[in-house]
Amino acid sequence: MLGAPAAACIVTLAATPIVIVCMRRLAAIDEVTARSSHQAPTPRGGGIAVVLGLFAGVLVMLLTRGGTDSPDLLPLTAAASLFGLIGLAEDVGGVTAMRRLALHTATSFVVAAMAVLGAVLGDATPGLLTVLLVTVAAPVWITGFVNVFNFMDGVNGISAVTAALAGGAFAALGAAQDLPTATAGGVLVAASALGFLPFNFPRARVFLGDVGSYALGAVLAVLTVQAVLAGIPPESALAPTALYLTDTTATLARRIRAGEQWYSPHRSHAYQRLTIAGWSHVRVTGLVAAATAVLIALSLAAFGPLPGRLAADAAAGLVLLAYLRAPRWAARRGRTAAHPLTARPAAPSPHQPARLPAQRRTDDEPDRRAAPGRTR
């Protein structure tokens, strides 16, 4: 079992420098724009190395596994391959929004069918109601979360760290509940993400790009579907992705309520507003990682008595609410530091007109040169 994650991590580490050179030659570069969080042009497409790492881990696992209790890694492999190819086409040449949505939807149906069929044909067959619900919801879930993961990949290390934590959570759940698919898939995702992390955090020499965010988002969505089909409680299955879902949902709702074009590029996710308030990428990624770890720990109460489960669910809600309010607190603290309460505004001179406040520049206006959904 150790050989497969080691192969995934090593291949990702070895392939990433090669991918950086190739992406530079293809001019697949994220330039600095008004909506960027980075300060220098940086190659994208580093997720190619992550996908190669996943493939290497799956191959080693297939060659070394023994016994009949083997993991069903076909949906994960198909998700990484198909969504990765869509992301690669977007990184290199660009794909229109409608065509991208059509490709995501069609691919999600294929991958969801693989996951459901694998569960039905497996040893521990899920109940009919669960199969029906997952069959209907899984394509929507996979399509949605792939885009959520892409939207949230906007500061150094945030998605690699989240994927590593999520993979580790699924691996631990699988080991505790004797679910080889969750264990194998989770450990491979975590290993590949950790192999990419040194090139993206704390300083980014390369970005995951759409190829990486689509592939990682897809495999995490597939692992969630497989976990639910295997009987994992919804809280535990969704905990590793809950912060990403909450940030994107809250941002979308706020923009719709404000009358903005919700589908246009923007820079108003909670993690982006934290960087605008002055937080470093390291600090933002650390907050996201810490909150995700707490959510994963709280979700374990779903395996216990109902009162404890409800209390843990309420605590998880408070953690997510605190994360959403963090940008407001950070901005208020920044203003307080810049303008202490003890400082009094100087009275205008009778010989000079009072100055009007300077107009604030916002980063919400879309950069029409940037691809939709790319928020760096």
Tell me what you see in this structure.
The chain has helices at 3-25, 47-64, 74-92, 97-120, 128-152, 158-177, 180-196, 209-229, 234-238, 242-257, 270-276, 281-299, 306-338, and strands at residues 29-30, 42-43. The protein has 13 helices and two strands; from the N terminus they run H-E-E-H-H-H-H-H-H-H-H-H-H-H-H. The chain is 66% helix and 1% strand. The longest helix has 33 residues, at 306-338. The chain has a two-stranded antiparallel ribbon. It is globular and about 60 Å long. Mean pLDDT is 86; it is low at 341-376. It has 376 residues and is mostly helical.
Outline the fold blueprint:
Elements: H1 3-25, E1 29-30, E2 42-43, H2 47-64, H3 74-92, H4 97-120, H5 128-152, H6 158-177, H7 180-196, H8 209-229, H9 234-238, H10 242-257, H11 270-276, H12 281-299, H13 306-338
Antiparallel strand pairs: 1-2
Helix pairs in contact: 1-2, 1-7, 2-3, 2-7, 2-8, 3-4, 3-8, 4-5, 4-8, 5-8, 5-10, 6-7, 6-8, 6-12, 7-8, 11-13, 12-13
Main features:
single chain; 376 residues; mainly alpha; two-stranded antiparallel sheet; 13 helices; globular; disordered C terminus
